[in-house]
Amino acid sequence: MSDLEKKSIDPATIKMIQKAAVDGCETIFDRAEAMKPCPIGAEGSCCKHCAMGPCRVPAPKKKEGVPQKKRMGLCGATAETIAARNFARMVAAGTAAHSDHARGIAEAFLATAKGEVPEFKIKDEQKLYQVAMDLDVEIGERSIREIAIDVGKKALEEFGRQHGEIPFVKRAPAKRQEIWRKLGIVPRGIDREVVELMHRTHMGVDQDYKSLLLSAARCALADGWGGSMISTDLQDIIFGNPVPVLGQINLGVLKKDEINVVVHGHEPLLPEVLVAVVNDPEIKKAALATGAKGINLVGMCCSANEILMRHGIPVAGNFLQQELAIVTGAVDAMVVDVQCEMQSLAQVAKCYHTKLITTSAKAKMEGAMHIEFDEHHAGAVAKKILMEAIGNYKNRKANVEIPDDKTDQVVGFSYETINYLLGGMFRASYRPLNDNIINGRIRGIAGVVGCNNARVTHDDPNLTLIKELIKNDVIVLVTGCAAMTCGKAGLLTPEAAKLYAGEGLASVCEAVGIPPVLHMGACVDNSRILMAATAVVKAGGLGDDISDLPAAGAALEWMSEKAVAIGHYFVASGVYTIFGTTWPTTGSEEVTKHLFEEFENIVKGRWGFEADPLKAAKLIIDEIDRKRKALGIDKARERVLFDMAKRREIDAA
Amino acid sequence: MSKIIASAAIRGAHKIVERAEKKYQEALEKWGPEQEVGFPDTAYYLPVIYAILGIPVKKMSDMKPVLDRCRALLPLPVREKSALPYLAPALDAGMATFFAEEVIEAIRYLEDPNFYTKQEDILPDNLWLGAANDVIFRKRGVEFVDGTAPGFAAIVGAAPTPEIAKKIATELQEKNLYVFMCAEHEGKRFSEQLVEAGVQIGWPTRLVSYGPDITAAVFAMGFACRVAMAFGGIKPGDFRKNLNYNKDRTFAFVMPMGFVTDEWYANAAGAINWGFPTIADTPIPEVLPTGICTYEHVVSNIPHDQLVQKAVEVRGLKVNVASVPIPLSYGPAFEGERVRGEDIHLECGGGRTHAVELVVSKRMDEVEDGKIEVIGPDVDQIQPPGQLPIAIRVEVTGRKMQEDFEPILERQIHHLINYAQGIMHIGQRDIAWIRVSKSAVAKGFKLADLGKILHAKLHQDFGAIFDKAQVMIYTEPKAVEEVLAQARAIYGKRDARIEGMTDETTDTYYSCTLCQSFAPSHVCVVSPERTGLCGAYNWMDCKAAFEINPTGPNQPIPKGDILDPKLGQWKGTNDFVMTASRQKISQVSLYSMMVDPMTTCGCCECIAAVLPMCNGVMTVNRDFMGMTPCGMKFTTLAGSAGGGAVTPGFLGHSKYNIAQRKWLSGDGGLLRLVWLPKMLKDELKDRLQKRCEEIGIPNFIDMIADETIGTTEDEILPFLEEKKHPALTMASILE
Fold first, then answer.
1. A409: left (phi over 0), alpha (psi -120 to 50) or beta
2. How far apart are CA A357 and CA B383, in angstroms?
3. What does the pLDDT look like over B664-687, one tens digit per residue?
4. With contact defined as beta carbons under 8 Å apart, do B491 and B430 qualify?
5. Nearest to B232 among A640, A642, A653 (CB)
């Protein structure tokens, strides 16, 4: 394996790493070589929660016959407390990120409902009704506007709610709710759980690692069944619930003779307006006047996922390709909002002509131009941004080189859409999925999600894992940057079923016309996976809780705190979840053991760590087989033939 | 759905919808928007559209929104590379296909009113039956409900030869399935092939030649939709329930024979919505994963000699095939087959000779199981068409045999003999009538085979109540006379005993939940004076059925404390109904149609309805197609009272029940009866007359109006007043 091949398995990425080197532009791939991760921080053994520290309590090398000394910080906080606190703070930060995103959406939603945002409207009335019911908003004979305003208000109230339960927990299987209630970890309000977790992890507060990890679960649930879910649902209502759509992915979607605008980040508000405004005649005219053939709007990271899922807008790439898009020399403007935007973008942009434009009041960057987005002036802001890009086209330098790599991908699998796809308008249900899991054509379900991480070969762990899973008839649900990895590798096409999937899974894919890997959206849309899992439970025959399902989750290339929050809400929802690359609590064996083993007895879900993707695949498949055995579906079933007496036993439809 | 199938189905759906749109435009121009449209004599309009969309298409302009729905449902063609998911779009396209086909066929009825025979049988110059009217539908639908027909095969196209067609049809008939046929393959049609091979087709033999085109496939789907609405109580427009009901209960499948065109694919894809899979004789792609159908969705390239077996297995159907050691095909599907003049080899009874049937119980040592004796000339000793007197005496014995079970076994003789292909049986007791066809004799049939049938089938169905049976068949005039005299004496004794039985003389009633396979919340409570509403099960039948199958649909109900003697409510019956109806019904009156009336599965022979103006009730039988004074025809009445719903003011009951003492006794009894169809009046005449004398008004029959007097309350009221009908002076029926 050459050095380049260690960096990425994606040919477009390799080409642009080479180009960056030629252009003398430093990227994350260079820095990853130059700087190693801090070994003490990596294992969660560094406490800097007070000014008596930072205290370092690294795990000592084990020596035979020498008794272990109890490690502690100045205040006496044990290595266990320190590791658990660090872990919990990651959960809090991740939850805060998703939920603050959701708050922004809720505000925009309410403004839209009130008619204050002409660019947005209530697009999916069915979903509005569903969400209204789940939020206990009266429907009756009321108008869409009235219902939507109440939904917006109710959603916003969830963030500041102090008591009771966040309403979406009622969507979970009854048995799951019971587990949460028994443990006392049903979130009260979204912000409250984040604040409380920050408090608990302050110097000298909660110093019992078990208590810390359980309250982290409560906070994470406020993300998965709270902030993230609100965000997904409200976005679906105003931008449309995704349905299958064809798109393309990888740097090859950039066009040499068009003005390339890359939208990068996470919130779909501005991208949605850009999608609409890009066809504005005035903008078109201005673009053509520069000699370009038009404007090419493309996405990056989860902003890309949002507009890909809903409009089929091309995707330039995932997290580790953000600098490389600029390296093509063809990006006239890169528009960013929040989360996962590397500060190095400003530096890379300087090597070329690219205008880096920050748009969120929450996220400014030194060296970038700031055009603040406000949904009340959405159209005007979008136009201004596009005009900046148009004006910048003439500044392109000679060193433009766009790799020709791009791949078709079929995306848009919201859980409601999957329901439709499995039976059509008249027989929509998850029944066929359950049936084929029960009969063994599909062995189980895996959610593979999460980021890129420059400490491992870009795209390799996730892709290797996913290929191994589908080869073993495990259908894979993907979101975020992991989804893009699959897109680039061609796994998101129906043709992939024949090429990569096992015979059973392939036959189901061929029957339904779906890829063996289903793209369910941005990282905030992991809530869709929770809902899909719940739908499978409710369709029957596979137990009565998410933890009964032959299913597991993984994020082998995780890097952000959001990933930890996501992982923790999956575990707390009953899913065995494996992370790769590195594990943040290795500094304490007890904490790690608690998460990896004892959590199973508490929430019926547990964490795992495995950096080797093939070994991770085996762990997932073993878990699936274990669940299949528990359900009694590990052996072939006999065909039941019905006579009249048997038909009489069927309950009324 | 494989991509090839989905692509073809979507193309086919486009073609059929376009055809429907064109037809509609032409028809609209010709007849205008107000023109009435529909299938003949049905309360279900265009049944697929009605069942799925809830739209009653009554006039031309009603078709427009349906066609708009078709358009909205039609998906884009499937892309070759990186296709979007196609299963759901193909299923939707299939549904649009059926809507469009109903439009096409409805316009055909308008354009060419005699294109279809519109009856049960084919005509000499017309094979095509078209949509079943509600009388046919109900009669045949009941067979689905009671289990005599487990489902249907929808055959599209044609077999390679008429012989293969006949073989497949016979095999399906032997599995008790209906065969619905349409469309052509290379200029041939399955129905025509059967006729060519000398097979009797039409509703009576379950070989239904719906129409010559693929669009006639929709009649089969309409039949299934109507079963769900009529017997399952599923509301029009509740598509999900209707489709799931059919998936779970109607065991139907599609059997395309020959090249599968885009239009065929569209129909097959549509049928998958109902859970009806496709089993093909050509090598089309297969769809094996399960989910929408119970098992596989498309199975293909099946050799003709395995086709039926495979189809039944794929659909998940268990058929208990009768094995009877005779040289003829055997099963309920042959019950409706006729033996006509030129085909008669032997005829017994029918007014020409004596024919009598009798079942008697004997002592254990008097019966040699399986012994069959024919005394007198057999079929090979007569010149066709010949006539002989006949007496069939079945002698049974067993520890659980009771004298009361004799008439029950005896009543089986009719259908058991009639099930044999080429043998026709009508009537019972001393008015039996048997015809043996030349084709049956050619296959080697002998009179002893009648004995073999009875011995084998009675053992199969009633083996639990007797141990041994022997059959004596006499064609010797003198011996027949002797049996006849013996039989008549026994009939008289039996009748007297049955007449003496009342609800008060027994502590145990019986339930009948046979129909729960189709009407899941319906429970019949059968008492000596309230025969089952289908007319097929009286108290004694239920008692015997319980002996035969102690865990079956007929269970004893201890009456328990009486709660209301007038309405006929007992604690025991209420408790039982509560449980057996799956908590849907808490109390039921045996004697009232006004307070807690019993539900009906939809199989009822008659439906009674209150006529408020006349202060009385009317009742109408299933075979009467005309209007009634309550403003509804039978089929509309059945639509509102069927499917296991409690509907005060309406009651399903048997014909026989009308002349039983307890009929509506809680509401005033027979004296309330102000109207019934003439045909029913005539049929019940003798028993009604007896009952009229019992209630002290010998001329009461003459006070009851019928359709010759009027079919509205306004029309019959003056008649009732003139006749001084007692109902007019009774307490108000509505209180």
1. beta
2. 106
3. 999 999 999 999 999 999 999 999
4. yes
5. A653
Give how far Cα A391 sits from Cα of A288, A292, A335, A410, B324, Å: 11, 11, 15, 34, 91
**3-state class of B411 per DSSP?**
helix
Distance from CA of A412 to the nearest CA of B (A): 10
Do B517 and A510 lie within an 8 Å CB cutoff?
A: no
Determine the Cα–Cα distance for residues B271 and B311; give it in Å rounded to an integer. Answer: 14
- Cα A499 from Cα A506, distance rounded (Å): 9
Phi, then psi, of A520 in degrees rounded to 5: -105, 0
Same domain, A302 and A434: no
What would the pLDDT profile of B564-614 be if each residue is shown by its tens digit?
999 999 999 999 999 998 888 999 999 999 999 999 887 788 999 999 999
Domain containing B574 equals 504-729
Measured over the CA atoms of residue A74, residue A77, residue A80 and residue A86, the dihedral's sign is negative
- The answer to whether residue A431 neighbours chain B at the CB level (below 8 Å) is yes
Q: Is pLDDT of A182 > 60?
A: yes
Q: Return the H-helix or E-strand segment holding A302.
A: helix A301-311
Whether residue B685 sits in one domain with residue B579? yes
Residue A416 in any domain: the answer is no
Tell me the pLDDT band of A653, cut-offs 50, 70 and 90: very low
Residue B109 lies in a domain: yes
* B609 min Cα distance to partner chain A (Å): 27
DSSP-derived 3-state class of residue A288: helix
Alpha helices in B233-384 (DSSP H): 239-249, 262-272, 307-315
| Contacting residues for A35 by C-beta, under 8 A, at least 6 apart | none
Q: Which residues of A touch B313 (CB under 8 A)?
A: 639, 641
Tell whether A428 lies on the interface with B, counting CB pairs under 8 A.
yes
Of the candidates A239, A262, A277, which is a domain's last residue? A239
- Amino acid letter, A13: T
8 Å CB contact between B679 and B624: yes
A499–B contact, CB cutoff 8 A = no
Query: Considering the entire predicted model, what is its pTM?
Result: 0.89
Residue A544 is encoded by which pair of tokens? 């009565």
Total of domains in chain B = 3
Looking at CA atoms only, how far is residue A481 from chain B in angstroms? 21
In a shared domain, residues A139 and A263: no
CA atoms within 13 A on the CB side of A47: 31
Q: How many domains does chain A have?
A: 4
The confidence band for A651, taking pLDDT boundaries of 50, 70 and 90, is low
Of B87, B244, B518, the CB nearest to A512: B87
Reference B673, options B686, B683, B636, B691; nearest CA is B691
**Which residues of chain B make contact with A508, given a CB cutoff of 8 A?**
289
**Cβ within 8 Å, pair B290-A432:** yes
ipTM for this model: 0.93
Query: Inter-chain contact B292–A423, Cβ cutoff 8 Å?
Result: yes
Which domain covers residue A151, as residue numbers?
79-239
Q: Which residue has the tokens 């009774």?
A: B730
| B278-279/A444-448 β-pairing | unpaired
Cβ atoms B70, B31 nearer than 8 A: no
